[in-house]
Design a protein that fits this description.
By secondary structure, the chain is of the alpha+beta class. It has 4 domains: 126 residues, Calcium-transporting ATPase, cytoplasmic transduction domain A (Distorted Sandwich); 272 residues, Calcium-transporting ATPase, transmembrane domain; 160 residues, Rossmann fold (3-Layer(aba) Sandwich), CATH 3.40.50.1000; 182 residues, Calcium-transporting ATPase, cytoplasmic domain N, CATH 3.40.1110.10. Helix content is 48%, strand content 17%. The protein has 32 helices and 26 strands. Strands 10, 11, 14, 15, 16, 17, 18, 19 and 20 form a 9-stranded mixed β-sheet that branches. Strands 8-26-25-24-9-21-23-22 form an 8-stranded mixed β-sheet, sandwiched between helices. Strand 17 and strand 18 form a beta hairpin. It is an enzyme of class 3 (hydrolase). Pfam families: Cation_ATPase, Cation_ATPase_C, Cation_ATPase_N, E1-E2_ATPase, Hydrolase_3. Its EC number is 3.6.3.-. It is a multi-pass membrane protein.
Length: 876
């Protein structure tokens, strides 16, 4: 809706029937019913009629339909009806798979939700962005992604990236004002638009449009006809399917011509050739893969890793390097005071009791005044809000009986500068206007540079060079123990002008240091060892000091002799070619700002590495986008970081990253299993028909039998293999090479080997049984092929592991095999199906022959697997 930018704010609020205190919950619920969800309608996939139509528009279905028409035209009513029935069954299965794939993807989308801070009933709380309505008053801060179109009520230093709307990467300053009516969208400084990213500052705004009525909703409606590209994995399989399909068409033409030359009935050969082409191309492959990916992604979500893009599964299986943060990812992000240092003594925090030590009292005063943590008590539960180090200091002071709230009352703030990375310190001027005091807290070396005095035994004295060296040594010692260190200093002021606080930051008195520990997360050491076993390198990128970062890296066995550490300052001075040469040797990057991550990622990628990167801030988003796998922190990450990522960790835990890589490898492994099963089995069918005709035998299988074979042996076992249990060594293999084909050398060899065995076995049974009638021979050949397909399903569970290991572990596969056997028995023993498929009942002796032959494929492949295991011929 236009016009909100050119009206006074009071008029906007009146038009929206709201106020600066927002809506009540009841009003919001009523408006939600009126306006609908705050969502951009996206194409959730074709509806049922379109899915059915797509099945019949496929050439794989059209060809047998044409064949059935031909059969009907020449009077072969029986075969025409049977072919149509089987095509309808195959189509039904295809429709079911397509619907299941759509449901799986939609369910996966619902797992990822974002929240907005909205004022309801006079209180600010978290509201699902989908439930925002026009008239809601929302609170926005740096790092947020705008949840709706809104008019600014009040702002403080607000800067927004609107490049997704304007195409310009220059940040836009935003503030409350009234603009001319003809002001274009790109220049509306008083408006916020859904989907844009807040870079800096904060504001309150009133929602004026949601969902399809937003600016981005209007653009999405215009682009509604755009078709989403296929996944890389799907494209690769499409290419494989086309190659295989063309080959099968050529073979089918050869079969038809050979049959004609051999004086076989032309119609029978036409139907057999067409059915062979259809039966050997797995038309449900794409849907099966989508189901496998979505099911695997949901399983990963159960382990706190939400996959936002299904194709990322490919990159997960290929990850060579994980560039990880330290704080909150490797550690618990639960800072607590461990050590307190003054010039007189060095104390462990747990040993400090309430004391009258003047040095400690002064340092505690600085820590209490120069602190933005807030204590909140609710139902006898105390919670702290604010920076982790501020919270740790707050808790420490309270434990010792120093009331932080009392400091706030006794020393009211007059002015100050919040902590900024550029100056590496926080500055507060507090106390009375007549005798204010400057309090400073920050990075030890930065604070020390501003000090000219020291506090020792309650007296101030000159800070000599040996004293500075003593402080530096104490800082290094604490940092080398893996602690984060803060320094505290102060300066008494007089009637000086306190409007320019930074100009007052000189001649400070050094009060002391505090060391904070951040415990290592549970299971991180085990996860790191798992990565090492899997051939994945781990690089720590942190803003902490070099000594702290290296200490933690050593504790986690991430830093070894010969490894290098690089600081952000060194990184800025290192040319690209030098960084590329050193990147594989650097294990720790310290004092790094988020923007510098991009150079590290590019250097590793230029060395051929597949890189996963973690991040949580607005400035992390470029690195997350650049990485092969961008991993955002769900608990502490900004909305901008989450939107730029491929995976969101709900618990910010490094172990969850490893779990995601494990899940990705499992999914990809299972896709390879059922792809191998489908194509290997189909090669056996083609070889049986082709070699039978080349040997001058009658047609071993009829068209209806080929189609039925495809129906009962492809779909269900393939789906069962998609949820197969992982192999034990899946995280002891090196990362999969980028671009490695799904069908590798081992698979190609197995396809040829198993196809040859299937054709030899089925043709041998067919030839031997010919003396008892063609229908009996075809029944035996068909039954033998089904048995061989079933055994092949178990073969395909691993390229190296024996089929005996975990034989009964996949209950889905056992169920699929059971259903296939029941359908086979129905086809052989039920008179109506006997008449349709030209089968005859088999005796106990016949079944003994089939059961004796079927394991041959298993035995041969077991020999190949044994050779692979012992001669290390694994095709990876």
């Amino acid at each position: 809706m236009s016009g909100w930018h050119d009206r006074p704010l009071d008029e906007v609020l009146t038009s929206m029937n709201t106020s600066q205190t927002g809506l009540t919950s009841r009003e919001a619920a009523e408006r939600l019913l009126r306006y609908g969800k705050n969502e951009i309608s996206v194409d959730s996939g074709p509806g049922l009629p379109a899915i059915i139509a797509a099945q019949f528009s496929n050439y794989i279905v059209i060809i047998p339909v044409i064949a059935s028409i031909i059969a009907l035209a020449v009077g072969n009513f029986h075969d025409a009806v049977v072919i149509v029935i089987i095509v309808l069954l195959n189509t039904t299965i295809g429709v079911f798979q397509a619907l299941q794939a759509r449901r799986s993807i939609n369910a996966l989308k619902r797992l990822y939700r974002s929240e907005a801070h909205a004022m309801r009933d006079g209180k600010v709380g978290d509201v699902d962005t989908a439930d925002l309505v026009p008239g809601d008053v929302i609170m926005i801060k740096a790092g947020d992604r705008l949840p709706a179109d809104a008019r600014i009520i009040a702002s403080d230093g607000l800067s927004v990236d609107e490049s997704m709307l304007t195409g310009e990467s220059v940040p836009r300053s935003k503030q409350e004002m009234v603009l001319p009516e003809n002001t274009p969208v790109t220049d509306r400084a008083n408006m916020l638009y859904m989907g844009t990213n807040v870079l800096d500052g904060e504001c309150a705004a009133v929602v004026v449009a949601t969902g399809a009525q937003t600016e981005i909703g209007r653009i999405s409606a215009m682009a509604g006809g755009a078709k989403k590209p296929k996944m890389p994995l799907e494209r690769a399989l499409d290419r494989l399917g086309r190659i295989f399909g063309i080959s099968v068409v050529i073979v089918s033409a050869f079969v038809f011509l050979t049959g004609i030359i051999r004086a076989q009935p032309p119609l029978e050969m036409l139907l057999a050739a067409v059915s062979l082409a259809v039966a050997t191309v797995p038309e449900g492959l794409a849907a099966t893969i989508t189901i496998a990916l979505a099911t695997g992604a949901r399983r990963m979500a159960n382990h706190k890793a939400i996959v936002r893009s299904l194709p990322i599964v490919e990159a997960l299986g290929s990850t060579d390097v994980i560039c990880t943060d330290k704080t909150g990812t490797l550690t618990k992000n639960e800072s607590r005071v461990r050590t307190v240092y003054t010039f007189d003594r060095d104390r462990e925090a747990y040993s400090i009791e309430h004391t009258d030590d003047p040095d400690l009292r002064m340092m505690f005063e600085v820590a209490g005044v120069c602190n933005d943590a807030i204590e909140e008590k609710w139902n006898q539960v105390t919670r702290y809000h604010g920076n982790q180090l501020d919270i740790a200091l707050y808790d420490f002071l309270n434990r010792l009986g120093f009331d932080k709230a009392g400091y706030d009352r006794a020393y009211p703030r007059l002015s100050g500068i919040p902590f900024r990375p550029s100056i590496k310190m926080m500055i507060v001027v507090a106390g009375s206007h007549e005798a204010p005091r400057l309090y400073v807290k920050g990075a030890p070396l930065a604070v020390l540079e501003k000090c000219t005095k020291k506090l020792s035994s309650g007296r101030e004295s000159t800070l000599r060079e040996e004293d500075r060296e003593r402080v530096r040594y104490a800082n290094d010692r604490l940092s080398s123990r893996g602690m984060r260190v803060l320094a505290f200093a102060y300066r008494d002021l007089s009637q000086e002008d306190i409007s320019d606080v930074w100009s007052l930051t000189h001649d400070l008195t050094f009060a002391g240091l505090t060391g904070f520990e951040d415990p290592i997360r549970d299971n991180v050491r085990e996860a790191i060892q798992t990565c090492k076993d899997a051939g994945i390198d781990i690089v720590m990128i942190t803003g902490d000091q070099e000594l702290t970062a290296v200490a933690v890296a050593k504790e986690l066995d991430l830093f070894h002799p010969g490894d290098e550490v690089m600081t952000g300052a060194e990184l800025d001075l290192t040319p690209e070619d030098v960084l590329k040469a050193k990147a594989d040797r650097v294990a720790v990057y310290a004092r790094v700002v988020p923007e510098q991550k991009i150079r590290v990622v590019r250097a590793l990628q230029s060395n051929g590495k597949v890189v996963a990167v973690t991040g949580d801030g607005v400035n992390d988003s470029p690195a997350l986008k650049l990485a092969d796998v961008g991993i955002a922190m769900g608990a502490t990450g900004t909305e901008v970081a989450k939107e730029a990522s491929d995976i969101v960790l709900q618990d910010d835990n490094f172990s969850t990253i490893v779990e995601a890589i494990y899940g990705g490898r499992v999914i990809y492994d299972n896709i390879r299993k059922f792809v191998k099963y489908l194509f290997t089995s189909n090669v056996g069918e083609v070889a049986t028909i082709m070699f039978g005709l080349l040997l001058g035998l009658p047609l071993p299988l009829l068209a209806t039998q080929i189609l039925w074979l495809n129906l009962i042996t492809d779909g269900l076992p393939a789906l069962a293999l998609s949820v197969d249990a992982p192999e034990r060594d899946i995280m002891r293999r090196p990362p999969r090479r980028t671009g490695e084909p799904i069908i590798n050398r081992i698979t190609i060899f197995d396809m040829a080997l198993i196809g040859l065995i299937m054709s030899i076995c089925s043709l041998s049974v067919f030839y031997t049984a010919l003396g008892q009638g063609i229908e009996y021979a075809r029944t035996m050949a068909f039954t033998t092929l089904v048995a061989l397909h079933i055994c092949n399903a178990f073969n395909c569970r691993s390229e190296t592991r024996s089929v005996i290991r975990g034989l009964f572990s996949n209950r889905h596969l056992l169920a699929a095999v059971g259903i296939s056997i029941l359908l086979l028995l129905a086809m052989i023993y039920l008179p109506p199906l006997q008449a349709i498929f030209y089968t005859v009942p088999l005796s106990t002796g016949d079944w003994a022959v089939v059961l004796l032959i079927a394991p041959i494929a298993v035995v041969v492949l077991e020999i190949r697997k044994w050779v692979t295991r012992h001669v290390n011929l694994r095709g990876r």
